Amino acid sequence: MKALDGIKILDFTHVQSGPTCTQLLAWFGADVIKVERPGVGDATRKQLVDVPGADSLYFTMLNHNKRSIELNSKNETGKEVLTRMIEECDVLVENFAPGALDRMGFGWERIQEINPRIIMASIKGFGPGEYEDCKVYENIAQCAGGSASTTGFRDGPPLVTGAQIGDSGTGLHLCLGIVTALFQREKSGRGQKVTSAMQDSVLNLARVKLRDQQRLASGPLDEYSQYGEGIPFGDATPRAGNDSGGGQPGRILKCKGWEQDPNAYTYFIMQAAVWDKVCDVIGEPDWKTAEGYAKPPERLDKLNQIFDRIEQWTMTKSKFEVMDICNPVNIPVGPILSMKEISEDQGLFATGTLVNVPHPERGEYISVGCPVKLSDSSVEVERSPLLGEHTREVLEEVLGYSGDELDRVIASGAVGEVS
Ligand SMILES: CC(C)(COP(=O)(O)OP(=O)(O)OC[C@H]1O[C@@H](n2cnc3c(N)ncnc32)[C@H](O)[C@@H]1OP(=O)(O)O)[C@@H](O)C(=O)NCCC(=O)NCCS
């Protein structure tokens, strides 16, 4: 048994934010039926193509364990089929541009009329207000949610992150909203509307930077390296490079081989609790008790000097040797792993965090499996569906079409080419 066995999802999502959400629901056991435009499908199927003629990794890595039905939701028969799907499903998930669902004739009121138990979950770029009608992609959300202005180095421009916190981050938030609404429905018997704005999700993930914004009113942020450098703070949370905050200052430091290898670096956290060990490891035992060094607040104006000294030491070791030396004495460090190193990490394959997935068009590829592990609901990662692969199956088994009625729907052209 899987956690969400028996839950049917009408998956009207595309690109990245919505598909990450419904992929999680599929991994937790829901029957996710992806509704795609006949002959076209999710735009990502044919974006960043690496194997000519095959669905791209962009698509396959975001749409595992789903079924695909082709359906033109603007055609009359298509609307009839969609209505039947809304009747049958527990959740409708969508991330169209604002207003697209209303223009199709399926706004929230109409959907509720068709099925009062359904949960309708939407991702939009912005919540209600000035920008609610805007189309939004990942990096716009990172900029509008406060991440970009607080990422990067003080003397450089704002930066977006490699992690897709706007898309996949919002997908995660929406997924939580959906299972929460399903839980409430158990008691209330009613569905509800769940929305997650990409700006809000990014801001939620960047909340410590809003914390720092308010702390500025009480004085400089003394854990930021700019404090130790004597550079005054402005009126907004600044970019802090690779600093980590609080009583546990941290930096990215060079390791042996950094001149050739762009990832020969380690993250090193000078955790207060293990200051003595840090001093021993780097060969500065006097700093354990020296005035100006012994206590965390005294060190704040010397962080650059101390980290320079630690880096002199890390540069004599590989990033893995730094791990081997520091971990046994409880100094928190972490190697900067390249995607190549991660994709070859057998430990991640052993836990199912990385999986090899066979695919009929493109052969085997590596994907990220389910990042959340439930002890009583296992996940077997299955390849993404080909466009319209399950159209007939869904029409017959889920929606109950048969005989002349099925022939009529297929002949209408609303569901693409059906084999
Ligand atoms: C991502 C985004 C910018 C893409 O924009 P887009 O490619 O223009 O796609 P849209 O969502 O506007 O949909 C395009 C059209 O296809 C139509 N369409 C989609 N599926 C269809 C189907 N199965 N049958 C018929 N029409 C369909 C939509 O109704 C819409 O038509 P309309 O413009 O007449 O209303 C936009 O969808 C968006 O802002 N989404 C919300 C935020 C979001 O999730 N962004 C992150 C994406 S990773």
In short:
The protein is an alpha/beta fold and 419 residues long. The protein is built from 18 helices and eleven strands. Strand 1 (8-12), helix 1 (17-27) and strand 2 form a beta-alpha-beta unit.
Query: What portion of residues is helical?
Result: 25-40%
Q: How many strand units?
A: 11
Number of helices: 18
- Tell me, briefly, the overall form: elongated
Bound molecules: coenzyme A
Features:
single chain; 419 residues; alpha/beta; 6-stranded parallel β-sheet; 18 helices; elongated; binds coenzyme A
Describe the structure.
By secondary structure, the protein is an alpha/beta fold. It is 36% helix and 12% strand. It is built from 18 helices and eleven strands. The strands form three sheets. Strands 3-2-1-4-5-6 form a six-stranded parallel β-sheet, sandwiched between helices. A three-stranded antiparallel β-sheet has the order 7-8-9, covered by helices on one side. Helix 6 crosses helix 8 and helix 7 packs across helix 8. It is elongated. The mean pLDDT is 96. Coenzyme A binds next to helix 1, strand 2, helix 4 and strand 5.
Topology:
Blueprint: E1 8-12, H1 17-27, E2 31-36, H2 57-60, E3 66-70, H3 76-88, E4 91-94, H4 100-104, H5 108-114, E5 119-124, H6 138-144, H7 167-188, E6 193-197, H8 198-205, H9 207-215, H10 225-228, E7 250-254, E8 265-269, H11 275-282, H12 296-299, H13 303-314, H14 319-326, E9 333-335, H15 339-343, H16 346-351, E10 354-357, E11 365-368, H17 391-398, H18 403-411
Helix pairs in contact: 1-7, 6-8, 7-8
The protein binds coenzyme A.
Coenzyme A (COA) binds at residues 15-18, 35-37, 71-74, 95-97, 100, 103-104, 123-125, 135-137, 167.
